[in-house]
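tool=predict chain=A
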Amino acid sequence: MRPANKRTVWLCAIVAIAVIGGMGAERAWAHEWYVTSNGRPQNSGTRESPWDLESALGGRQKIDPGDTIWISGGSYRFPDRSLNSPGFTVRLVGERDKPIHVRAIPGERVTIDGGLSVVSPSDYVWIWDLEILVSENFTMSRELSEPGSHPQSYGRPWGGLNIHAGKGCKYINLVIHDNAQGVSFWRGATDSELHGCIIFDNGWKAPDRGHGHAIYTQNENGIKIISDCIMTGGFGYTMHAYGSERAFVDHYLVQGNVAYNGGTFLIGGGRPSRDIRVLDNVFYNVNLQLGYSAPFNEDCEVRNNILVNGNLAINRFRQVVQEGNLIIPVGAPRPDEAARVILRRNRYDPMRAHVIVFNWKKSATVDVPLDSFATPGMIYRFMDPRDVYGRPVLQGQYTGQPVRLPMQGEFGVWVVLLRQP
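tool=predict ok
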């Protein structure tokens, strides 16, 4: 074998250094940035010199794929309080294997007051653990004399989470309440997911009807996933996957959600829908409707859902798979069992789950097994979804035995949070 000359050795060394350096540089690209309510755009984004929220989310800072933006506890009030205000705008671009994370600092309550809008360019962004509301809704009336979906007399920000664009984005464990609409999840957002969110008391009352929905959504390309969310209250529909004959309502996976004491859960519009999957959901005092005014729809799969005090309507679908659903109309006999307990673990946070209980016999307590979720010694907290930042309904140290949960009535749902002792 001919020995390498000095030039060849030198070139090989340069290549090796470049490869190793590149790997190290890739790791170094994943930075952690910090935002506080009194941060400044000209700061450096460190803990000691944090940014403001508007510049950090809006693409005015240098944030690379794989980076994390940590938001400190506090209230972030968007200054424009007009009806057409977009709220804080997100323009962040990650990559499939290196999403940008926007997160509340663990254990801290971050309140976005005035709404959050995700616009182009925004791809592969994961937004976690934020609260989104409009504070005027705690002091101004939610009952208007003006009809219609866009009343000029509304007189406050629209608020909510407005997703206009973005591929491969995820919205995880958000608490969205007291907005004109909870989540607006539009056609420009593709292959994106809403997971583990708590959405309640959005909308307003008008002379014609209630307006504003927990989720209003349309989709054409890619799959929209709405999973393991809790939705209740409000003035309009719970889910409003709907549009005219020109809009698309296609390719939805709706799985593991809990909808209770709210408006109809609708998927369908004026244009034929296709590829609709509704799996493993719980509906209590909520109707489920697939298909609206389209002359026909293509295919849907409705499996293993529980509907109590509600009806299931599947309208004009050419192909229907309907299996394993438990449907109990108002006044119908209940199952011959004391209780049914469902525990659904959060896909992204191993210390979080939802517990749903059907207390058929209306006992004062129900035993809830946590063995598939917790290990002995862990501290657990059962939280009311409407007061997830408040006092626990029940807390203690897990012993390995079922937890005795106090009940009021036939149905209940809780967010269960774990921590190490």
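DSSP finds two helices and 41 strands in the chain. The CA atoms of residues 41 and 104 lie 19 Å apart.
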